[in-house]
Design brief:
By secondary structure, this protein is mainly beta. The protein has no helices and 10 strands. The protein has a 6-stranded mixed beta sheet with strand order 2-10-9-4-5-6, with no helix packed on it. The relative contact order is 0.33.
């Protein structure tokens, strides 16, 4: 089965950090375009980071809203993605998904003031 499973979310104070993980099964994360997408209450989905499907860790894109604070990485050997989130603020509160042709169940990130 094709599956994505996210983990690592939680409650953190403004200015804090979290590291999200996404483990894939049924396909290789190195061979597809894959993104981190977040959905905040009352807002539409926002792509925050994207890897191209060329297997390179250098082929990354970031939304302006997270550039300089979030770092995405991909471990092809573990078939996993990661999202290191630093200097979090309340606007980062959302359900975070990894997404390719399929979506995970999401992991909740809540940032308190």
């Amino acid at each position: 089965d094709v599956q994505l499973v996210e983990s690592g979310g939680g409650l953190v104070q403004s200015g804090g950090s979290l590291r999200l993980s996404c483990t894939a099964s049924g396909f290789s994360v190195s061979s597809v375009a894959i993104s981190w997408v977040r959905k905040a209450p009352g807002k539409g989905p926002e792509r925050v980071s994207r890897f191209n499907g060329d297997g390179s860790s250098e082929s990354r894109w970031y939304a302006d809203s997270v550039k300089g604070r979030f770092t995405a990485s991909r471990d092809n050997a573990k078939n996993s993605l990661y999202l290191q989130m630093n200097n979090l603020n309340e606007e980062d509160t959302a359900l975070y998904y990894c997404s390719s042709d399929t979506w995970g169940q999401g992991t909740q990130v809540t940032v308190s003031s």
